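haha ok so turns out i had the wrong file open the whole time. this is the CORRECT one, sorry everyone. sequence first:
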Amino acid sequence: MGEDQNVDLERSAGILLHPTSLPSGKLDREAYRFVDWLAAAGQSWWQILPLGPPDEFRSPYRSPSAFAASSQLLAQPEARVTVGEVEDFVARHPYWTGSWASFAGAEAIADQVRFEREWGALRAYAAERGVRLIGDLPIYVSDEGADHAGWPELFARGEVAGAPPDALSALGQRWGNPLYDWPAHRATGYRWWCERFRRTFELVDFCRVDHFRGFVSYWAIPERNRTAKNGRWRPGPGAELFRAVAHDLGHLSLMAEDLGHITPPVHRLRDELGLPGMVVLLWAFRPSRRSPHRLENHRANAVAYTSTHDTATAVGWFESLGRRQRAATGLDPQEPHWGLIQLAYESRARLAIVPAQDVLGLGDEARMNRPGVTAGNWRWRLERGALTPALAERLRRLAERHDRVT
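then structure:
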């Protein structure tokens, strides 16, 4: 499949807002109001972060389950669930419900039934208004979770996951997640991955594959090391895994998170699979003319972001620049975030995604995550009523001008 061929993406736009950032952090009426606002703003997509239970630091990227959804999102956590509903859910999810119930306790499956009700209703409401959902699949799982406990033979020992030093972190990122024993996965026909993707697409329409480069090669850090600086690259499964999943489940609508230390083999795998990659406009003003983030280098089969959950907000980034650097961007210093939104909408990239913080013009006090920093992340919440009809109208006009209203 060529780089400009992708059956999943038409020219469109969306907003990144994790459900925990809704005013209540729940799937309540504020979630439905947000969908109404998206529709009014001409947005075709609502992008979220992973839906699994977060870890003790609120991170959804180190969840105790690659399959279960977070009960913390429930608007009605005490809603009645019958024995028959539990049995039906288990019958439809035989692969993972046993290990999750053993790990999380007696109410664990009832909570999944409740989540299915609430999420299913919200997703249907969104679909009726032309809004589809983009999910996020973390490459790794928790070292203290149900997956590691339930399938220990699928994980390697002695090394942990992370990312090498890069522009986001001088010491790299020591995530601490267990690494996969890829030969063991291959021996099963990648069954665990097939089931994981199956579960993902029960919940969303399109999915970002986090740390896509880890499927080509991944940074392995000796477990005893406190930073990620002295790891080493090891080979991943490459296209073989995705072929196995496609053989089992058919075509899947995916995008590749291809940020960070990216090599030609990563781009080759992305393009072989026909997946759109990511470009981030905060990085569009770097001196290198070859940077994929520069507007003139954007590909049609791509997703253009103003910023991401792992970066500064658009305003936070602009405020961090020196006076000459600000001037060189050509952005209006009164509204740099709207300048970046316009660039994202002008981009050749078929899909443009803007975090809600950038629509609101918020600074780094609203930043979602600081890579390499454990505490204080994942806490930002949208103020009730902050996304106004006037903002929706302004965004819709911009989307219409750049042919992004579907």
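The longest strand covers residues 155-163.
again sry for the mixup
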